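Subject: Protein record for review, amino acid sequence with backbone structure tokens
Why sent: The fold of this protein is of interest and is recorded here as tokens.
Enclosed: The protein record, placed directly beneath this head.
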Amino acid sequence: MEKLCIAEIARVVGVAQSTVSRALNKSGYVAPATHKKIMEAVNTLGYRRNRIARNLRTRNSNFVGFIIPDISNEYFSMLVKEVETGLRSEGYALFLCNTDENVETEEFYINSLLDNQVAAVIIAAAGGKLSSALEQAQIPVILVDRNIKNISIKQKCLICSDNEAGGKNAVQTLYDRGARNILLIGDERHIYGAENRIRAAQKHAHFLGISVYTSFTHVSFSGGYKLVCHMLQTNPAIDGIFCVTDTIALGALRAVIENGIKVPEKIQIIGFDGINIGSYVNPALTTYKQDVVKMGRTIVSATVNLIDEQQTRAVIKLPVSLVERETTRSLLLSQEQL
């Protein structure tokens, strides 16, 4: 593929293939005017120099890129560990890219991964669409909890948790334990997974006929803390809180406690993700847990199958489970009080 590309560039520019090779590899003299023409042809033809001397189409590449939005988020840290371990056992090395939720940074990393001829890209996208360069590359793409529609990639797979069930069941859990005025806190970026959780939670709250307040914030401890401090002043009737991430929920928990409100006696709180720190705070956080181990193994399996051109389901949805701790009341006690 590389020789064919070099030959095509040489034909378009009207020079020898060796001249193109010297220009691309910076290995010898090329007249400035000729060099300019070669690079213009490179950009026009979409040629990519293989910086690691491997050829994707002959399946020599053993590198896979994983683009995540926030390495400081414990959930993604745990997921990366599982994916890296699994891919290494399959003979692949992982290129980890952290975008800090920045679309331009994501674009930079996508281009860098393609320049290095990765065999596949796993991505939890920062934005709502994919880079055109990634679509044109036509390599396997595994979408993690981000459903990006209208993309022309043939080899793709969406892997996510059952976000709808998580949102619905969280509201039902609070309702069964006596909550009737529930605050729902979503992700201000309105990304696929978190948005599905909040919509399912809203829908079920309306079905149950209870009061519901919905607000959005940044996914951070401070985001949850500041929002709940404000909401407690404007909506003192709140007796239950569901947050679309544990990170937000931990900030919310601190806000409630600092306002002198007892948890779970007066306000119950449920998060989503199942990060480890939730079990060490006081009171320990009740949450709907994503199975990060199974998620990681599923990502690895789908990635390897797509690279090997084996059939893989277009969408894989994994169940979530309730981890009941101390920020919700005992179900039996709550029913007795009702």
